Structures are given as C-alpha cells and as structure tokens.
Amino acid sequence: MNRFKKRILLLGLVLAVAGITYYGYIRRSACIVQPKTYTKTIYSFLGAPGSGKGTLAEQLVKDLGFKVVSTGNLCREEIAQGTEKGKMIAEYTRSARLVPDEVISEMLENWLNQQKGDQPIILDGYPRTKEQAKILAHLLKTKFPDYRFRVISLDIDDFEKIVRRMAGRLVCENKQCQTTTHVSLLKEPNKFICEKCGSRLIRREDDREEIVRKRLADFVKNNNEIVAFYKEAGIPVESIDVSNATPESTLEAFKRII
CA separation (Å) from 152 to 25, 36, 142, 149? Predict the structure, then answer.
C-alpha cells in the first residue's frame, strides 16, 4: 500500500473516531435534565394565627418591594364592586359557608395575569387547606410555569404566646388598607388610629381567646396535611423559628434564606 493510500485510511479512521465521540456526547447531553430557569417567585407563608405572617409581608413590601395578594381582600373587592362573583361570595359569607376553592383559584389566576414586572409575590392567607395547596400547585405548574414557588414556615413553640399576642391585635377597618398592629405598638394607646391611612383600628371578633384557641387547633390539623402534601409533591418547606423573634429579627432571618 503506497503512502497516499495510508494517509487516506488514517484520515478516515480519525474522522470516524471523532464522529463516534461527538455522537456519544450528543446522546449524553440529551439525557441531562437542564435546571429550570425562573423569572419570578411566589412565596406562601405557613404559620399559626398570630405568628407574624402579616407583619413580615408588610415589611417585605416596604423594604424590598414585594407584592402581597390576599384572597380575603380579593373576595372583599369583588363584593364591593358588586360583580356577579361578588354577589355569590357575599351569599356564601352571609350563610357562614366557605367560598369554594375553585372560585378563590379563579380570582387568584386573574390577579396574577394582571401583574407586570418580576417583583416577588406573597400569598397572604393561602393556601389554608391541603385541597387549596393541591389546586395552587396545579395552577402554578400549568398556567404560570415561569414562577418559582417557595414555602416559608414561621414556627413557634408555644401557642400560649400566640393567644396573648392576638388578644391585643388590631386591624385597620379600611378595606383598602387592612394594616395590622398591636396595642403595645401604638404611639398613643388610647387612640386606635391607623398610622398608615388614618382610619380607625378595630379588634376582630375572631381574636377573642376562645375563638383563637379553636383556630389554633384547626391550624395544626390543616398545616400538618399541607406540609405532608408538599413533601409528597417534592416542594421544600423552609422554616424560620419565630418563637422569641421580633418583627425585625424575623425579617433578617427571611433575608438570609432568599
């Protein structure tokens, strides 16, 4: 075999090896699941009534530019606007029935569709049950895949602290404000005036001790079911111990995990 033919055969062999190597690389690359890129984040706060979820949300809006959506406020806005959905919600409320989960999910979906930009969003008071958690997870997966979903649990080891805390809790009666505070934080303890909008501060009926204790019992049951569902679905629950925390220390702890 002359020198020319040997060179041709050698070149062919090199090209063949290179082709096989490249093909193997392509096949391996195709098997690698690339990490999903998220452009937005939705936070859901778990925590007993009075654990500081609302206060933390207000701080994040003020200090870090977060947005908050409250399903309760969405319901009240529909009622105030006199929409057909609002009339239906009002009927449920008057008869002391829970608004169907599908209705809440629809309102939340409409609200999310209206949002612009990439500001982080906090879900206030939602989900409250395992079924709501399942509906929310499905909604985000199918309709809002660009959102990263993070669950933050505000843990407290002594529910008696919650009972004492909630006994002094006040809320702004302005439906567009709904700022919460505590009697111990008022600059003028004898004047129940909202420092944010100037409206009157009131104490909710469900902040009475016997009702608080029932709400705590309900919370434990529902929270355990929600956490179990998240574990099954592979959704991490990140915890912050707020047993002896101040609003400021809770905020700093949250900043450390984001």
Answer: 40, 21, 22, 10
Percent of the chain at pLDDT exceeding 70: 85
Give the closest residue to 67 by CA, choosing from 106, 102, 108, 38. 108
Task: Read off the CATH number of the domain in which 97 is found.
Answer: 3.40.50.300
Residue 181, domain member (yes or no): no
Q: pLDDT per residue over 60-102, tens digit each? A: 999 999 999 988 889 989 999 999 999 999 998 888 788 899 9
Q: How far apart are CA 162 and CA 178, in angstroms?
A: 20
Residue 139, in any domain of the structure: yes
Give me 148's structure tokens: 């990263």
Q: Count CB-CB contacts under 10 A for residue 58.
A: 21
pLDDT, one tens digit per residue, over 103-160 is 999 999 999 999 988 999 999 889 989 999 999 999 999 999 999 999 999 999 888 8
Give CA–CA dist 203/257, Å, rounded.
33
Reported pTM:
0.71
